[in-house]
Specification:
124 residues, mainly alpha
Amino acid sequence: MRWVWEGVEVPGEPSDYHFLIQQAVEQLWSRRRDDLEALRFVETFAYLDLTLIEAAPQAVALDERDLTKGFVHITTLDRLLTLLEREGALRDALAICRRAERFGERYRREDLNAKVAALEEERT
């Protein structure tokens, strides 16, 4: 976790930071059963990565000069969505989906939209 915080302080390109964060999220995700603190950092780093790629989408673009060509698969978003859904934070997960849709259809979750709609119906 420390090398991520130190890594984002050194000069680099947005893609350098994205892949640093993504690698850390994957390592922390693999340790989640043995280290509950790892989950907190998965969430923290995933939100950091989402903020980074929203500000600098070229960091995850297949062609940084032409964003219309699409984006790489962003595993930090997958991990964040999974984590939020498992915690029952469906509205938060849906909000992330909406923010992430610009990075590809794979982040659109119609099932999640239906779950949130069902929750809203139960409240009324």
